[in-house]
Design goal:
- A hairpin with a 3-residue loop joins strand 5 and strand 6.
- The chain starts with a helix and ends with a strand.
- The chain has helices at 2-34, 38-47, 51-56, 67-71, 77-81, 173-190, 214-223, 225-230, 256-260, 280-289; strands at residues 107-113, 123-128, 133-138, 142-144, 147-152, 156-161, 166-171, 207-212, 233-238, 244-250, 268-272, 275-276, 295-302, 305-313.
- The protein has a five-stranded mixed β-sheet with strand order 8-14-13-11-12. Strands 4-5-6-7 form a four-stranded antiparallel β-sheet. A three-stranded antiparallel β-sheet has the order 1-2-3, with no helix packed on it.
- The relative contact order is 0.07.
- It is of the alpha+beta class and 314 residues long.
- It contains ten helices and 14 strands.
Length: 314
């Protein structure tokens, strides 16, 4: 009987151990099902970082601030795929420049120096063929009377002619030759399609040159000064509308000084170095301006026909 009691207690102990094992296993399964996953834990940590971590992270600015870095190609293909914004609009084409009008002034461009056309330090070396002077001009400086330097390019400059109220261009000799060759090539290419038209003849203005010895001229002027004052009576010459277009004098051929200057009776002096004589004040202005010049051109009207006399004092 005692033996049966022992066996019964053993079975009870085994049953109790099995129940405890089942309960422990069930609790572990429930805990595993209710515990958050690792990805959820990481997302929670990333979405809500602690305040210390936020203080260490700089705030990102506007995306436009980093566009130049992304567009530079520093990140390779990754940078290209990151751009979701549309490309900026293409720049509008610049309007075609107006046809350039070459200046008719007796000027020669020897060279230029400029980083941009209207640089305040831009300069151009220009020769005035009227008096043979070669000078360096800057932006806004007067090259000849009422003609100022406006822009300086590599092989050309732009001038503003206030007398004609227009913009003119002056090329270097090399650029002129290049333009001439290009024009000839264009003319040859179109000669098979269009008949050539002869250019209208331009009336040639006679041009004479007179060389005068400075000492002889001064001596002759001193000797004939009395006759110059008493016999010569200068007067302003006007056209049919009454506008002053020059100056003339009577009895001018009676003076040896006029013969030295190749002046005839009835000659009308109209220009000095391409500057128009349109008033008595302009005569005095031109005398003071060119009194020390060695070369000057005088435009005259002789018998109703224009001509030019170039004087050179040696």
């Amino acid at each position: 009987m005692l033996r049966g009691l022992v066996i019964r207690r053993v079975f009870m102990a085994i049953e109790l151990a099995v129940v405890i094992l089942v309960l422990v296993a069930g609790g572990m399964v429930v805990r595993a099902l209710l515990a958050p996953s690792a990805s959820e834990t990481e997302g929670s940590a990333t979405a809500n970082p602690p305040e210390e971590a936020r203080a260490l992270l700089p705030e990102a600015g506007d995306k436009a601030q980093y566009a130049s870095i992304v567009n530079s190609g520093l990140f390779g293909e990754a940078g290209k795929t990151a751009q979701n914004e549309p490309a900026p609009p293409a720049p509008k084409p610049e309007p075609e420049p107006a046809e350039e009008q070459e200046t008719e002034l007796r000027l020669k461009l020897w060279g230029t120096a400029a980083t941009v056309p209207k640089d305040p330090l831009a300069s151009a070396i220009i020769e005035n063929e009227e008096d043979g002077s070669v000078r360096t001009f800057f932006i806004g400086q007067e090259v000849v009377v009422q003609v100022t330097l406006e822009e300086v390019h590599q092989r050309k400059v732009y001038l503003f002619n206030a007398r004609l109220n227009r913009r003119e261009v002056l090329y270097t000799e090399a650029e002129k030759e290049k333009t001439r060759v290009a024009s000839v090539a264009t003319a040859r290419s179109t000669s098979m399609r269009l008949p050539a038209r002869p250019a209208p003849p331009r009336p040639a203005v006679p041009d004479s040159r007179v060389t005068i010895n400075r000492q002889e001229f001064i001596q002759e002027l001193f000797v004939n000064y009395a006759d110059l004052v008493t016999k010569i009576k200068p007067e302003m010459y006007r056209d049919e509308t009454g506008k002053v277009v020059g100056i003339t004098a009577s009895n001018i051929e009676s003076l040896p000084l006029a013969q030295m200057l190749d002046l005839k009776e009835g000659d009308v002096l109209q220009t000095v170095n391409n500057e128009m004589i349109d008033s008595e004040e302009k005569v005095l202005q031109l005398v003071n301006k060119y009194r020390n010049s060695n070369v000057f051109r005088v435009g005259i009207l002789r018998g109703g026909s224009p001509r030019v006399i170039t004087y050179r004092l040696d």
